[in-house]
Every structure is written in C-alpha cells, then in structure tokens.
Amino acid sequence: METTTPTVALLHDQTPWQMFMHADAVVQAVMAALALASLATWTVLLAKSWEYARQRRQLAAAHKVLMHIADMGEACASPQLGTGLPGALVAAADEELRLSHGLAGVAGTRERVASRLERIELAHARQLRQGTGVLATIGATAPFVGLFGTVWGIMSSFIGIAQSNTTNLAVVAPGIAEALLATALGLVAAIPAVVIYNHFSRTLAALKGTVGDLSTGVQLIVSRELDRAASVVPQRAMRVPWPAAAVGA
After folding, report:
1. What is residue 99's three-state secondary structure?
2. 203: closest CA among 45, 37, 43, 40?
C-alpha cells in the first residue's frame, strides 16, 4: 500500500499544463501548433462575423432604396448607393451607359452592363471568402496533426519502457496521457473550425443572393433608361412638321 499511494497521487496530479510541460519536444511542438490553430479559428470567427453583419446591413439598406429608384441620375445621387458594393455596381452601370451613348443596339448595351456587374459580383465574393479557407485547412488537418503527436508520444513511451526494463503502469501512463492530449487538442481545434466554416458558407450564400438582387435592381434601372431613351426618338419624329409642298398638295 505504501508503494502504490505515491504513484496514484502522481497520476492524479497530472493536469493538462503539467502534461504539456513534461511531454516530448515534438509533442510539445504539435500541441503549440494546435493551440495556435484554435486561436486562429476563433479570431476568424470574430473578424468575419463582424464583416458579414456589416455587409448584410449595408446590402439590405441599399436594396430597399434601389427598388424605389427610377433612373440612373437618382441612383448616382443616393447616399445609400454611393459607397461599397452598391456604389460600385451603380458606377459601373452608369459608366457603361456613358460609353455606349449613341451606339445602335440596346441589347448590346444591356449585355455589356450585365458583364460589368457580374465581374464586380465575383470580385466581391472572392473578397468575402478571404480568411475562411484557413478554417477548412484547420478542420481537415488538425486531427491528423494531433494523431501524429499521439503516435510520437506513444513511441517515446515504449522506448522508455524498453530502457527502464519494467512494465509498471507508472512508467508508461504519463507518456500515453501526454500523447492522447495531442489528439484531444487536434479535435478541439478541428471541430469548431468545421462548424464555423459551414456556418460561414451558409452566410456567404445568403449574401450572394442579396448581391444578385442588387445587380438585378441596377440592371432594371439600366433597362428603363434605355427604353426611355429609345421612346424619345419616335416622339420627336412625330412632332416634326410636314414640308410645305406636301401640305399644299
């Protein structure tokens, strides 16, 4: 009884920090890397959540205003459509209308405007996705990194058994516990990363839909502008007076 009590007390005193301090250098490096990966996951969560919330409010307000605008002049003068993605969409459409002024073919102008807006949408989507790829990387690799630390720790424990020529549990248990801690840290880093990445994927899909609604609204304004310009010519033609000779006849 006197020989087993200190061993039991030693095993009960093994806190995660103590296991980290007593672990092999390789296992320590694995644990530190996993801790940094977990910190990166929560940092991305805070930063991108704030960014997506701000984008959601801005896009929703812009879409609400855009649905009540009749022409490009009013759209360019609107404060809600003067900055960010809404401002870029309106500016691109207005620029294409200016460059296409006087050209025949309304369908071609519509296609050029749609092409400009599509490129802006894609660039905005790439910007929103920046920083989320690290979550997928952590979610895919962290369990295997932790498993590597576990395998290395267990190998060190077996080497310790061979060198001490004993199979006493007190010799092998601490090393195995330290090795298993690496696997636990790998799961702690990977599981939140996967959950957060999936959440951001759904959020990005919703934002993409809102951006598509904005682009459609701008194209509707452009279409009204083109139809309005096309209707002016026939009306002017109807007001041209007939030649005097024709009237006398």
Report:
1. helix
2. 45
